[in-house]
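FORM 12-B: Structure-to-Sequence Request
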């Protein structure tokens, strides 16, 4: 600018000299006007140059501040890189620990499966024993009934045999009495023995017999007398002994069957007694956990489980009695949908606390719950997951539940008609944000 000023001054001096040299004033004025126009142009150029200079200075200052910001940002990124490396080292350590835990837990399913198979085999064996015992009991009762029927038949046969024996003995006695009477009458009337009757009757065995009618009447009389005597069973005593021996064997079998039935009933009673004891113990544990979890989920109130319809725990039903805060004690069916859901969750988690499982899948259980109950539900699930060995898999559309989990799995459609599975580790994201 100084050089241009000097040039302008020289030009002005030269112009004045030329003006003095020029005799024409109008021409000088015209030249002055031209010089003024040139001066205005040069002043405009000077202003533009100053504007460019100021803009360059501002840009230089902005670039200097930008360089300082870049240096600060670079230092921040270097710090974040160091934190990320440390975090990666921690994640590697956690991954190794998780892999070690996975390796340690890899044998758990096989052991649990083996234990489950053992328990299933024990249950099957117990069921088989029970069925065998029931079959043996049925067979024993059938054999007992058959033995009773056989004993009754044998008793009847013995009674009939005894009656036949008595009749036979009576017939024999009667025949003897008749024979004695005949002998006595022969002795009284003929004064001889029976062998001497024909001799005393003066009948020759070689002579003709008496009249047929007389003989017939005598034969009929003698036949009637013989029929009155009846048939004599010479094996009646042996048959009676055989029947008594069979009856004694049947009685021994009956005693054995009765003892076997008693033992079977004793075994069944022992099994039922042990089952009742275990059921009552498990019921008490589940009832205690259920009452505690109900209070935690509802923020108050009270609830308990009760056995109904029978005094025998093995045949009794289960009734859930619940009293949310501000309501009277009533059955579960009278509660609202959200209250029924919370009560059912309390019972489900009570069972899990009594007999934990490796995995628990909950499908849309928070759908009928409001935000306050969802918060209690998520807090309870977090505590159970942290304190036990159960891993919870939640299927949900509730934003509060999704914000409280450790990892999210979802399906998104980045392009029309193309679905993609997305996984987000919320815990790692929080740690990364805290590190940044």
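FORM 12-B RESPONSE
SEQUENCE OUT:
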């Amino acid at each position: 600018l100084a050089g241009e000023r000097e040039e302008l001054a020289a030009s002005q001096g030269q112009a004045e000299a030329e003006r003095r040299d020029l005799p024409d004033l109008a021409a000088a004025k015209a030249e002055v006007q031209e010089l003024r126009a040139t001066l205005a142009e040069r002043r405009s150029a000077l202003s533009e140059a100053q504007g460019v200079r100021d803009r360059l200075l501002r840009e230089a200052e902005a670039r200097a501040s930008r360089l300082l910001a870049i240096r600060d940002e670079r230092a921040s990124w270097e710090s974040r890189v160091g934190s990320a490396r440390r975090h990666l080292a921690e994640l590697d350590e956690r991954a190794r620990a998780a892999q070690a835990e996975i390796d340690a837990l890899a044998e758990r399913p096989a052991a649990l499966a083996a234990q489950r198979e053992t328990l299933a085999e024990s249950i099957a064996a117990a069921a088989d024993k029970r069925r065998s015992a029931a079959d043996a009991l049925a067979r024993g009762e059938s054999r007992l009934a058959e033995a009773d029927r056989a004993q009754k038949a044998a008793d009847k046969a013995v009674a009939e045999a005894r009656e036949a024996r008595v009749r036979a003995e009576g017939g024999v006695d009667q025949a003897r009495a008749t024979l004695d009477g005949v002998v006595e009458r022969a002795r009284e009337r003929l004064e001889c023995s029976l062998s001497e009757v024909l001799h005393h009757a003066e009948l020759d065995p070689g002579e003709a017999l008496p009249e047929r009618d007389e003989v017939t009447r005598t034969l009929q009389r003698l036949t009637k007398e013989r029929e009155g005597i009846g048939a004599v069973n010479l094996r009646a005593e042996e048959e009676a002994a055989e029947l008594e021996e069979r009856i004694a064997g049947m009685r021994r079998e009956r005693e054995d069957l009765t003892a076997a039935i008693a033992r079977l009933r004793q075994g069944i009673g022992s099994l039922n007694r042990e089952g009742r004891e275990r059921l009552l113990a498990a019921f008490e544990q589940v009832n205690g956990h259920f009452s505690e979890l109900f209070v935690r989920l509802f923020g108050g109130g009270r609830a308990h489980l009760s056995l109904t319809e029978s005094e025998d725990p093995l045949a009794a039903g289960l009734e859930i009695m619940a009293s949310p805060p501000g309501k009277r004690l009533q059955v579960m069916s009278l509660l609202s949908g959200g209250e029924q859901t919370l009560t059912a969750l309390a019972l489900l988690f009570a069972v899990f606390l009594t007999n934990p499982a490796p995995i628990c899948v909950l499908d849309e259980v928070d759908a009928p719950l409001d935000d306050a109950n969802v918060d209690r539900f998520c807090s309870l699930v977090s505590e159970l997951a942290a304190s036990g060995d159960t891993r919870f898999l939640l299927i949900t559309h509730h934003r509060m539940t999704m914000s409280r989990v450790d990892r999210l799995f979802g399906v998104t459609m980045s392009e029309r008609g193309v679905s993609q599975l997305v996984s987000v580790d919320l815990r790692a994201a929080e740690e990364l944000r805290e590190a940044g």
